[in-house]
From TrEMBL:
Gene3D superfamilies: 1.10.340.70, Ribonuclease H-like superfamily/Ribonuclease H
Full protein name: RNA-directed DNA polymerase
Lineage of the species this protein comes from: Eukaryota, Metazoa, Ecdysozoa, Nematoda, Chromadorea
GO terms, molecular function: nucleic acid binding; RNA-directed DNA polymerase activity
Chain ranges of the Integrase catalytic domain: 121-278
EC number(s) reported in the record: 2.7.7.49
TM annotation in the entry: none
Length: 424
């Protein structure tokens, strides 16, 4: 642009043939007014002022964080500036300037980093039990919560009313209503909360020698199976409970109905997958008829037939689950919100702490971004991080969807962390 400015000022062309040719070709697109270079828009005749290098950063920052600005994105800043100004690499310089803004770094809403649907695979009942505590409200019997336990494979559900969600209560109810009736599960999956991660339940888990996997306590989707069951229970209680104070009296009946209903995923009812036969409803017409003598067999023959029938049922259920999960993953991953961002070891990121927003009166206005952090290890679904200015600290493990990329060149390596240890 300097050669073009010199041409308009001094009416001279550059000595270099290529530069001379370039100035001659561009000059009809520009005009020079009061010592200032303007570009003419050939479509509407608007003039855009050429901005020298020393004024560019100030102009961008004024549009981004000035008194009348709103910390807009680089794309929007560029669109604003391009209406009146021009210079080479304007878009890139807007991106760089906004990337250095600390306020934007700590408040930027993340694009969806949620990985595509990762289906949990189980192949038999009691391989994985999912737990949750559902708050309903106090009943006449002084129960306030429901301990919800769902078998991942069969979808068999145990839902017991409880007065509180202390570790002692949850551990006792789980042992009495799951373990002592159906046996110990191989794994227990729970949302990460005090009621599941205290020493009492950990001791029970150690006694059972069951592996414990936990989800993020503030992210119900991570415990999706039991979360959907929670919604089903609430819906059915609304429909069937005459008085909101007596919900715990109706709970066993709706759980029975749930367990007797074939699942769209497995093709069988939870009852069938757990016990190898269809459930008898109290209203079935043939209950009083007893067993037809023609089908009476001895115990050994029955056991053999039962095993064969159960294995056939389980095989068919496994196949149905596989087909259903593939279909669900395909449908889930087609959603526009599902995008996979690639993070790498050594990269700097911000972390969202949703629990911090809950401490504020106006939660929507609160900052819940902290960092920057440096990625020191990464898996498909989580990353190990340390503060950029405290690399010797113990790393924290954060799910991928809670990470926000810091655009290059990034903010200074001065980390801002929660005052107290918060839930990730």
């Amino acid at each position: 642009m300097q050669a073009l400015v010199k041409f308009f000022k001094e009416k001279t062309l550059p000595d270099d043939p290529r530069e001379r040719q370039k100035v001659v070709a561009l000059s009809p697109l520009f005009t020079f007014i009061d010592g200032l270079l303007f570009r003419c828009d050939q479509k509407n005749g608007n003039l855009s002022l050429f901005v020298p290098n020393k004024f560019r950063e100030k102009l961008i920052l004024d549009r981004h964080s000035g008194a009348c600005a709103g910390h807009l994105s680089a794309k929007k800043i560029y669109r604003q500036l391009a209406e009146k100004y021009f210079w080479n690499n304007m878009r890139a310089e807007c991106v760089q300037a906004v990337a250095k803004c600390r306020i934007c770094a700590y408040t930027r809403e993340p694009r969806s980093n949620q990985p595509g649907l990762k289906c949990v695979r189980t192949s038999e009942p009691l391989e994985l039990i999912c737990l949750d505590v559902l708050e309903i409200g106090r009943s006449r019997a002084r129960n306030r919560y429901i301990l919800v336990c769902v078998d991942h494979f069969s979808k068999w559900t145990v839902a017991e009313p409880i007065p509180n969600k202390t570790a002692e209560t949850i551990a006792r109810v789980f042992v009495e209503n799951v373990i002592l009736i159906y046996g110990a599960p191989k794994r227990i999956h729970s949302d990460r909360g005090k009621e599941f991660l205290n020493s009492i339940l950990e001791n029970i888990t150690q006694i059972l020698k069951s592996e414990v996997s936990t989800t993020r306590g503030y992210d119900p989707q991570a415990n999706g199976l039991v979360e959907r069951m929670n919604q089903t229970i609430i819906k059915l209680l609304k429909r069937t409970t005459p008085s909101e104070w007596d919900w715990d009296l109706k709970l066993p009946y709706i759980v029975f109905a749930i367990n007797a209903t074939p699942s769209e995923t497995t093709g069988f009812s939870p009852y069938t997958l757990m016990f190898g036969r269809t459930v008898n409803f109290p209203t079935d017409e043939n209950i009083e008829l007893g067993v037809d003598p023609r089908y009476t067999v001895d115990e050994e023959t029955y056991l053999q037939a039962f095993r064969e029938n159960l294995e056939n049922i389980l095989d068919e259920a496994r196949n149905n689950i596989k087909i259903a999960q593939e279909r669900q993953k395909l449908e889930f991953d087609k959603r526009p919100a599902v995008t996979e961002k690639k993070f790498a070891v050594g990269e700097k990121v911000m972390v969202i702490y949703p629990s911090e927003s809950k401490k504020l009166t106006n939660r929507k206005l609160g900052w819940n971004h902290f960092g920057p952090f440096k990625i020191i290890d990464i898996t498909e679904s989580a990353a190990s991080l340390v503060p950029v200015d405290k690399l010797n600290e113990d790393p924290i493990t954060v799910p991928i969807e809670r990470l926000i990329k810091i655009p290059s060149p990034g903010i200074p390596d001065i980390s801002i962390l929660p005052k107290k240890k918060s839930t990730i």
